[in-house]
Design a protein that fits this description.
five-stranded mixed sheet, five-stranded parallel sheet, Cobalt-precorrin-4 Transmethylase, domain 1, porphyrin biosynthesis, binds S-adenosylmethionine, 269 residues
Length: 269
């Protein structure tokens, strides 16, 4: 498969974003590098369709281990350096874009500190792609011209929480929450407490572009019930803001493969 004229330099690490999961949303560059890499280090977030397309003998799964624990990041960093020093060309494959809650920045810094050449290959982030395939634009001239992308992983009541929900409520615009399925009641509560209108539209998009994509829609007040009714599980993106209501206006003609797996909760938007 390797073409001497165009093969990646041996010893280079490619920090590649895979997009949300549809293999056709891999960039042309990501696809080429995946075909030619000596080793691909990945977790499960690139999704089943992309992972099934990789040759198992060149893959190392550095995602959750048997017991459900993540491979510690320092171990992944060390492995990248080790493989590069053996002269391999390596793809470090991350879901979405490696530089959006993907630890790509940490990996780049580690590689630079160890003198390992690397290249960053941006991917289509789920922060915008997951809403998009469900018919939700993250900006819309009639509703908002700003977007905040935050983690929902933290407890909003903790003083050390890095996300200031009160400030986000004041700014308005679209709020996109990654890693925010479990703590949905906490941060929707925080936004309501900060003064956001209870009828603010909210949508959850699970496994966007994977088989069995699911969407739950509602408002700040009803979305937790909608989540439970549909059975939304991670990975899912939460969209808070007027744009979330756009889905209801376009759904009938939205031809994305799995977009029309609508639920009763959709009527609430
Ligand atoms: C650690 S973050 C990684 C984000 C990723 N780097 C990106 O740019 O999309 C993991 C979170 O991304 C979101 N996510 C990634 N892929 C997704 C998908 N196909 N559908 C829905 N959410 C997804 C979920 O919020 C998930 O909890």
């Amino acid at each position: 498969m390797t073409d001497a004229a165009t093969a990646p330099e041996p010893g280079t690490v490619y920090l590649v974003g895979s997009g949300p999961g549809d293999p056709e949303l891999l960039t042309v560059k990501a696809k080429r590098l995946l075909e030619r890499a000596d080793v691909v280090l990945h977790d499960r977030l690139p999704g089943p369709k992309i992972l099934e397309g990789l040759s198992a003998d060149r893959c190392e799964d550095v995602g959750k281990r048997g017991g459900g624990e993540r491979t510690p990041q320092p171990e992944i960093n060390e492995r990248l350096v080790e493989l590069a020093r053996e002269g391999n060309s390596i793809v470090r494959l991350k879901g979405g874009d490696s530089f959006v809650f993907g630890r790509g920045g940490e990996e780049a810094e580690f590689l630079a500190a160890h003198g390992v050449p690397f290249e960053i290959v941006p991917g289509v982030t789920s922060a915008t792609a997951a809403p998009a395939v469900a018919g939700i634009p993250v900006t819309h001239r009639e509703h908002t011209s700003s977007i905040s992308i935050v983690t929902g992983h933290e407890d909003p009541t903790k003083p050390e929480s890095a996300v200031d929900w009160e400030a986000l409520a004041a700014v308005g615009g679209t709020i996109v929450v990654l890693m925010g399925v479990r703590r949905l009641p906490d941060y929707t509560g925080a936004l309501l407490e900060a003064g956001m209108a209870p009828e603010t539209p909210v949508a959850l998009v699970e496994r966007a572009t994977w088989p069995n994509q699911q969407v739950a829609a509602g408002t700040l007040e009803t979305i937790v019930d909608a989540r439970d009714e549909v059975g939304i599980e991670p990975p899912a993106v939460t969209v808070v803001g007027e744009v979330a209501a756009t889905r209801a206006t376009v759904l009938e003609f939205l031809a994305n493969e799995t977009a029309n797996e609508a639920t009763a909760a959709d009527e609430e938007v």
